[in-house]
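[agent] plan:
  1. take the single chain provided in the ticket
  2. run structure prediction with default settings
  3. attach structure tokens to the ticket
  4. add a short note for the reviewer (M.T.)
[agent] executing step 1
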Amino acid sequence: MTRIIALVNQKGGVGKSTTAVNLGAALAILGSRVLVIDDDPQGNTTTGFGVEKSTIGPSTYDLLMHQASTDDAIHPTEIDGLHLVPATINLAGAEIELVSELSRETRLREAVLAVASRYEYVLVDSPPSLGLLTINALVAATEAMIPVQAEFYALEGLSQLTGVVHRVREALNPSLHVSGVLVTMYDGRTRLATEVLDELARYFPQQMFKTQIPRNVRLSEAPSFGKPVMLFDPKSRGAQAYMALAHEVAAQHDRQPFASAPAGAALPS
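[agent] step 2 finished; step 3 output follows
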């Protein structure tokens, strides 16, 4: 069964696009067929795969507005078995244009289901907001992954995010659950990072990935070359971390799901 994973967090700069690019690449390198969908108007995932935005034909915007088929919007990448549906700045207009449309929350799900049987994983990169684009990602997904930066404000807004996941599950997508919380930009040498990790583990003891994504220069440099870090520098700590995460995701069967914050958890809003 295809796993459709939405990468969500309304906070920006937490590593959603980096994870979409590099987890997708790592899963494909391990032999899986993977589709990555860029659902963020900033198009960082598209840039991370080296796709020139000025040459893009149909994109995620066209799928949401029923102006193109999913097949027409799929682009190959340098990695065998890994495909991309790119995004352009036009996607920013979809938030407004979809408001008056019928079934506006299910547009992306329709597009994904048209091709899902060809892939073992579909990864959806969402924007740093809780608007219609993110709602479309959650409605399309079977599970959500939450990247969280190892910084002081890591927990801020998580209760709101998990509340949105719960509401989407109740109203639009009963199969949705949060399959894991991924700590990014982690530096284990600092006391703050370890404290944040401990705090997250206290609230989400069954949902934390064992892998943490470190702060890594090569990981930051790779997008400027339009390559996943596995192609840019496969021996770097960033590449090794995402390969470890891919192994963990591939082996993930019985991780306890949750659709909202654990009972009694007083998360910061």
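[agent] step 4 note for reviewer: The two ends are 35 Å apart (CA to CA).
[agent] ticket updated
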